[in-house]
Amino acid sequence: MSLLNYIFKRIIQMIPVIIIVSILIFFIVRLIPGDPVTIRLGIKATPQMIETLHKEIGLDKPIFVQYVLFIKNILNGNLGYSIRYCAPIYDLLKQKIMVTLFLISVSLTFSVIISFPLGYFAAIKENKIQDQIIRNGALIALATPQFWTGLVLMIIFAVSMKIFPVGGWGESWPQRLRAIILPAFTQSLWTGALLTRNLRNSIIDILKMDYIDFAKSTGLSTRVIKKRYIIRNAMIPYITLGGLELSYMLGGSIIVERVFALPGIGALMVESIYGRDYSVIQGVVLLIALLVIIINLFTDLMYAYLDPRVKLE
Amino acid sequence: MKTKLSLFIVLMLILSVFATASAEGQIAKQIVIGRNEDAYDLDAVTLNENTDIVSLKLFLEGLVQVSDDGKSILPCLADSWDISEDRLSYTFHLKPGIKFSDGSLVTTEDWIWSLNRAKNKESMWSFTLEALENVTAPDDNTLVLKLSGSWAPLLADLAMFNATVQKKALFESMSHEEYSHNVIGTGAYRLKEWKFGEYMLFEKNPYYRKEGLPKTEEIKFVVIPEDTTRLLQLKSGQIDVATSVPFNKMKELNDDPRLVAYGVPSLQVRFLILNHLKKPLDNLKVRLALDYAINKQELVDYILFGYGEVAASMLIPSEAFFNHDIKDRGYHPDKAKALLAEAGYPNGIEFQFNTTSGITEVEQMVVILKEQLKESGITLNILTLEKGLDSALLKAGNFELETRYWYSDIIDPSELCEYAFIPEMGRCLETSWESTDRAIELVEQGKREMDPAKRKQIYLELQKIYYDNVPLIPVFYLPFRVAMDKNIEGFVETPLGVYKFENLVKHLK
Predict the structure, then answer these.
(1) How far is the CA of B381 from the CAs of B30, B231, B399, in angstroms?
(2) To 10 degrees, the CA torsion angle through A46, A51, A53, A57?
């Protein structure tokens, strides 16, 4: 199947997934106790005010009618309105998704930069002191809460050494590049640790394979064997895990965003849950679902590139 | 050669003195203030959050304003006012030539529209202008407010944020949602930029009526939800002022030679909510027992680190007509046990205490209370809930004990007494006590009585009724907490939590 056909087919397959996610999030969020209008208007609101706002935002209609209207609006490109921020969801998401995407992209880059050399080195030095240091280092990174790591890094590099700002997003892209380093590094430690261990284990298994011995016996250089046989084969589980972690980072950025005062969708999501801002919650979840599907598609395309035996169908 | 060198050195010395002098005289163009949450709605009539109020008071003004110390009412956009003999008509003489921050003149039509909108029953703040019958303007600089009956707190109500003047034409030119982010006023600043959840940037209003003010070009409120991050940003100089400083960080900040942290007197009181709809909290003896079982001074010492004071009355000490004769019952576990025995609980009693997660002061308070109440045979089962769920259960009356704080929006006791004693209003503020006929009658009298001496007697009696019946248990009065760079001068926050930044500056070294 050609690449374009495959991508088109995957896009079509995306549709039922998005529909199922929309149904789940629409109904689940309404199961949580707490009325969005009462929370929005506060304790001083009279019953008439509450009823008026219920009508304005359609919460007085039967729930299935609300769902149909929700889908109809989405198909018309209208993600809805935040009753808390009094602003279109599209505007809110547009502003904040860039922050989160930037954060997770830089985090993943750091994770790869950390894990690649460490994972490879640990594998070729299997069970030696270097391997043990790297493995235990990864374990410590996995065990340490992001909240604590972020604060410690902030105190050392931002407050004491003043190399980076103490959180915040900045107003220009040079400022943002500086501001993203510490939060991205904090977030990358967990993923970097997992990828390090994954790569190490994969390479150790590959090194034991017969075809590696055969490749050596044919006189191929170490560099060629490394590139063509070892790294390439180790990439498949590495990319699988990387893709999963990227998806996890999308939803899990809230801790880092909060510690570093980054105005991303994690922070928006938490505020919206507190305020029962249904439209925002639905919008954020659908957006995350869409991005996760795209990440999975990209991961599958990478498989096909790395392993010719994998067919796109 | 030597002469030239000497001349050069002297010249350099002279220049350096001027350079130093000019640097010393300079102030920062922008002051950055870190706060823990963003505003949402800047429409003075529909807003709901404290951050909304604090933000809009930078640029919205009314006929009158509260003094910096919160004790008196001063002229604002009205120069003066006359009150008719029968107290049913207030004539305000407006300052001429006042402009909105877009350069257009404020007209009496804007005033009439703003005040009518504020008293409209669709506004949740309309109760403050309950007695306002109509507003007319006999000429361009005069407003006449006619009342349906005498209304003692009128001036205090007119100083409130909902009675500020807004531009009618702007409101009518856009949807309400757009308007709530684009409000303009007559104050020292105007909103320049707002990135939701990130920051609000205010710039000097070029049409502000006071020449040479405000002194600082820009004020930026940045949202930093995490307390530790906000304080670290202050310590590193990334922000100049931090608000909502945790009590346990005040000393640490004061130990920093660059910074100063202090409590701003407020009209806030934290209280325990007792659900009278759940037996046996409808029994006065049980409620009294709870009051005797709490060591409030210990809570002030360990939670507020001495920055607050023990509360006995539901009004705040700095408020008018505070009853200084009402004292805290004190910590008496023996009396608490005796009262519980009389109420039919000789072996003690158990309550569920619902709290919201993430509020440090509350989390600490419930832990200490649990230990204190144990001495009186009262077992507290603490249930920590997510904010929205906690509010939902509170609203539904599905709790036994809870804690909240309230603070007055005006410098008159009438508002809090309305909430404390009028059942319909009280349910808005989590009170389920049915009040007494005498109290309800006194609340109404307090609003209508114009003689200060008679008003005082009314409010003294109301506080006594509240104290005797224990509908809620006031625990402590707490201040606003702020920390800032020592080079900051002119930071004013009134006891109502309103900022006045006309003279706010940061001196550059």
Answers:
(1) 49, 33, 12
(2) 160
B83: β partners: B90
| Nearest CB partner across the interface for A159, out of B195, B198, B235 | B235
Report if residue A82 sits inside a domain.
no
For residue B195, what is the nearest residue in chain A, using CA coordinates?
A95
**How many CB pairs below 8 Å do chains A and B form together?**
119
Please indicate, yes or no, whether residues B341 and B426 belong to a single structural domain of this protein.
Answer: yes
Asked if B468 and B165 count as a contact pair (C-beta separation under 8 A), the reply is no
Residues B179 and B219 in one domain: yes
CA distances to B126, B156, B176, B291 from B168, rounded to whole Å, are 18, 24, 12, 50
Instruction: Report whether A269 contacts A177 (CB < 8 A).
Output: no
The structure tokens listed for A211 are 């075809």
Contact: A261, B428; criterion CB under 8 Å: no
Range of the domain at B447: 265-479
**Alpha carbons B144 and B372: distance in angstroms, whole number:** 56
Query: Residue A143's domain is classified under what CATH number?
Result: 1.10.3720.10
Count how many domains chain A has. 1
B419 contacts: CB under 8 Å, gap ≥ 6: B406, B425, B426, B428, B429, B431
- The predicted-structure confidence for B231-257, as pLDDT tens digits, reads as follows 999 999 999 999 999 999 999 999 999
Chain B environment of A84 (Cβ under 8 Å): 40
Domain boundary (B166, B182, B216) is at: B166
For the stretch A89-137, pLDDT in tens is 998 999 899 999 999 999 999 999 999 999 999 998 999 999 999 999 9
Residue A296 pLDDT: 87
Residues 116-145 of B with CB under 8 A from A: 121-122, 124-125
Would the CB atoms of A44 and B223 count as touching at under 8 Å?
Answer: no
Position A32 pLDDT exceeds 90: no
Chain mean pLDDT for chain A: 88
Report how far apart the first and last C-alpha atoms of chain B are (Å, whole number): 37
Q: Can you tell me the mean pLDDT for A264-285?
A: 90
Number of domains in chain B: 3
Q: What's residue A42's pLDDT? A: 74
Residues B341 and B464 in one domain: yes
Dihedral (CA of B394, B398, B402, B406) sign: positive
Segments of chain B scoring below 50 in pLDDT: 17-24
Residue whose C-alpha is closest to residue B311's, from B394, B417, B406? B406
Cα–Cα distance for residue pair B316/B413, rounded to 1 Å: 9
Name the residue range of residue A184's domain.
90-274
Q: Is residue A241 part of a domain?
A: yes
